[in-house]
Amino acid sequence: MKIAIVGATGLVGSNIIQLCEKNFNPEVEYTLFASKSSDGKKVTISNREYFVKELKKENIEAYDISLFSAGGERSKHYAKYFVNNGSFVIDNSSAFRMNEDVPLVVHGINENEITTSSKLISNPNCTTMGLVMALKPLHDEYTLVSMTPVAYQAVSGSGSEAVQSLNNETLLGDKLDSNYKDTYYPKPIARNVIPLAGNLTDNGYSDEEMKFVNESRKILGIPNLIVEPSNARVGVRTGHGTFCSAVFENEIDLEECTNLLNNFEGVEVWNDSLPTPIDVEGKNEVLISRLRQGLSSKNILNFWVVSDNLLKGAALNAVQIAKFVEKL
Ligand SMILES: NC(=O)c1ccc[n+]([C@@H]2O[C@H](COP(=O)([O-])OP(=O)(O)OC[C@H]3O[C@@H](n4cnc5c(N)ncnc54)[C@H](OP(=O)(O)O)[C@@H]3O)[C@@H](O)[C@H]2O)c1
User: Fold this and answer.
1) Nearest C-alpha to atom 44 of ligand 1 is from which residue?
2) What is the percent of the chain where pLDDT is above 90?
3) Is 272 exposed, middle or buried (0-12, 13-18, 19+ CB in 10 A)?
4) For residue 178, what are the domain limits?
5) Catalytic residues
6) How many domains does the chain have?
7) Residue 316, CA atoms < 13 Å, CB-side half-sphere
8) Do 26 and 160 sit in the same domain of this protein?
9) Which pLDDT does position 55 carry in this prediction?
């Protein structure tokens, strides 16, 4: 089998490489793509040496599965060449997520939407992915009507340049203040919270907030789901956390909610300790805690969910989809 990894030198791409090494037969042959500046970089996978290639049309051959994490522009421009050469493309960018004919897949929720003819498959937004993993078993039991998610997004969600900025700012210690300008975000992010994640859109919400709205509806199959999102960027390296207030059609039972969540593969409820981004970094599971029944209605569940944005939020879900596709 031949697998191409596009964006192989990035944060998501390097996690994809590690997960492929763990989950695929060592005989798999890889082709690694990145920008011109990484051309020729050496990477070892399953004891074999590979050299990163520049992503350009002439270098694209036939692969069975191609995993894209090199930004939306690269996906929009190059995915078609991979598909035309017979490959399944699993794309981490937002380029095709809302296309009607492209499945938006969270493994464990809706991978059965993938068929042999779905050559292009989108991996959802990292914050949305963690949240829908918590909502799916609850929705199946109580029917989700609306939700108010408030997200605390980690810096690695913006890529390696943002992480470098966080590291540099952290090293400044007490010398860092709000006048410091050499930052990835419009304000320093170390020791800080910026009450906007992503870019503002015309309606005053950020694109990250609108992903909560549109992608949750598509993944959960609830086209009229009401979503009132707010997303902040926080000075955390990895692990997106979300407080969510979810309203259901039916009255919830807290003990049953805990059981439903714990019985859902890939989800863990922590009762005795508070799961934080540092706890979830490097973990495949989505962690949940602070389950509370609403103060104003018995149909409301308030909870905290946190997941590794580079794993279930990106690389792990993509590789889970790749394993599913391998068996089609
Ligand atoms: N980080 C997350 O938590 C997360 C979660 C879900 C989805 N995503 C999506 O995944 C993608 C990558 O994110 P990331 O965090 O891994 O970013 P990153 O660390 O900045 O890595 C970007 C990757 O894209 C490659 N690239 C950039 N420009 C290119 C070009 N012109 N041609 C070919 N390759 C190019 C880079 O290669 P060089 O090293 O050669 O520059 C690198 O391999 C983005 O679309 C992002 O939205 C990220």
Assistant:
1) 71
2) 100
3) exposed
4) 127-309
5) 126, 240
6) 2
7) 19
8) no
9) 98
Ligand 1 centre distance from Cα of residue 192 (Å): 24
CA of 297 to the centre of ligand 1 (A): 43
Sign of CA dihedral 66, 71, 76, 81: negative
CATH code assigned at 88: 3.40.50.720
The verdict on 293 and 252 lying in the same domain is yes
In terms of domains, do 159 and 184 share one?
Answer: yes
Residues 303 and 180 in one domain: yes
Q: Are residues 139 and 178 in the same domain?
A: yes
Question: How far is the C-alpha of 286 from the C-alpha of 33, rounded, in Å?
Answer: 30
pLDDT digits (tens, 9 = 90+) for 84-139: 999 999 999 999 999 999 999 999 999 999 999 999 999 999 999 999 999 999 99
Is residue 113 domain-shared with residue 169, that is, in the same domain? no
Token pair listed for 73? 């522009």
**131 & 267 share domain:** yes
Q: Ligand 1, residues 12, 41, 74, 184: which to mutate, most atoms within 8 A of Cβ?
A: 12
Atom 17, ligand 1: residue with shortest CA distance: 159
Question: From the CA of 35, how far away is ligand 1's center (Å)?
Answer: 10
Which residues make Cβ contacts (< 8 Å) with residue 67, sequence separation at least 6?
3, 4, 5, 6, 13, 16, 20, 90, 92, 318, 319, 322
Ligand 1 pocket residues where CB is under 6 Å: 7-13, 34-35, 37-38, 55, 69-72, 74, 92-93, 126, 156-157, 159-161, 309-310, 313-314
